[in-house]
Design brief:
About 6% of the residues have low confidence. The radius of gyration is 29 Å and the shape is elongated. The longest helix has 28 residues. The protein has 8 helices and 15 strands. It has 4 domains: 67 residues, no CATH class; 73 residues, GMP Synthetase, Chain A, domain 3, CATH 3.30.300; 64 residues, no CATH class; 79 residues, no CATH class. The strands form 3 sheets. The protein has a 6-stranded mixed β-sheet with strand order 12-11-10-9-14-13. A 5-stranded antiparallel β-sheet has the order 2-1-4-3-5, with no helix packed on it. It starts with a strand and ends with a strand. With 335 residues, the protein is an alpha+beta fold.
Length: 335
């Protein structure tokens, strides 16, 4: 019975699905595969149960899963790693010799040494035709120079993020998705470029992880500083925690009341269409709209004339001018 297996290939990971008819594989297991480029080593991510299928489009990159890695294959990987380090040093010297404005990041051999992949970064297009000839003469194999962007550079080299863990792109992300400063605004985060940027100097990918949860409250909750009626008292929204789904309401006598977001209700002023917020008490009858309007507008009038009552002003900072594109297009040249 055919079972679909997900495989991660190469140092700059590519994830491919393959229909495997005979081998039973486990997650994190290393396997030897035949691709359109030659023999390569892949890591098993997951194997679907029998009967589940995956829609694979385009020409298949993986031709065959040959076998799980043997002890001899693992020794071969250590030898390949040593040769990659040597190839990187020699390639770097050749780049300096040709005086090219490019930065080599990492080298990678296929398992059968049929191809040497050199990842590099450059600010502009580089004419490396002479470099390719020098590399081919030095290594006597097929050379592929692959230009990558700053996000892919971090994914390739790895590192520790601001949270103290390995950066997401090097750990489990297989592709980049658009991230914008609006996601930070929706989550009530301060728009500080240094805190919103990752190692790649682009917006943090993790800004998108909880964004859908915050959007689910859009239009259902008041903004910070909004006036809100709670029983016979009135105050303003001091803080909203969308994770615990609770709201902190500040009162003029400096008390704070915490209420679940599920109890926050809204009514519209029939004259202006303005949203008027109030807290629903399940054990009491909902207040009349005229009562909500009276208490809200009286409180706002008193607050504007009383210096002892804190005035809440919703201030929006300027959005940082950060690149919000998911990644730069890559350029690859072979010889």
């Amino acid at each position: 019975m055919i079972r679909y297996v997900s495989l991660r290939v190469r140092k700059l990971p590519l994830v491919h699905w393959f229909a495997e008819p005979r081998l039973i594989l486990e997650p994190e297991q290393k396997v030897l595969i035949q691709t359109t480029n030659g023999l390569e080593v892949a890591t098993v991510l997951r194997m679907l149960p029998e009967g589940r299928t995956v829609n694979i489009t385009g020409m298949p990159f993986i031709k065959e899963i040959i076998r799980a890695l043997t002890p001899k294959d693992k020794e071969m990987l250590l030898e390949i790693s040593d040769r990659e380090k040597d190839a990187f040093k020699r390639s770097k010297l050749l780049v300096e010799k040709h005086k090219l404005p490019m930065k080599l990041l990492k080298s990678e051999y296929l398992f059968d040494y049929s191809r040497l992949i050199l990842y590099y970064k450059a600010d502009r297009k580089v004419d490396f035709r002479e470099l390719l000839k020098s590399l081919a003469a030095a290594f006597r194999t097929r050379i592929e120079l692959r230009q990558i962007g700053v996000r892919d550079e971090t994914k390739l080299l790895g590192g520790i993020g601001c949270c103290g863990k390995t950066v997401c792109c090097a750990q489990f992300l297989h592709s980049f998705h658009p991230v914008s400063t609006k996601m930070a605004k929706d989550q009530n985060l301060g728009l500080n470029p240094t805190k919103l940027s990752g190692m790649c100097s682009r917006l943090l990918c993790c800004l998108s992880y909880e964004h859908a949860h915050y959007l689910s409250f859009h239009g259902k909750c008041p903004k910070l500083g909004s006036v809100i009626l709670i029983g016979e008292e009135i105050g303003w929204v001091n803080d909203i925690n969308y994770i615990s789904e609770k709201m902190a309401i500040a009162l003029p006598d400096r008390r704070k009341i915490h209420q679940p977001l599920g109890l926050i209700k809204v009514s519209k002023d029939p004259n202006t269409g303005r949203n008027l917020w109030w807290v629903n008490d399940p054990n009491k009858k909902p207040p009349e709209i005229q009562y909500i309007m009276k208490k809200t507008y009286e409180f706002e009038s008193d607050r504007s004339h009383n210096d002892n009552v804190p005035k809440i002003v919703q201030q929006e900072q300027m959005a940082p001018e950060l690149d919000e594109t998911p990644t730069e297009p890559t350029e690859s040249e072979e010889f």
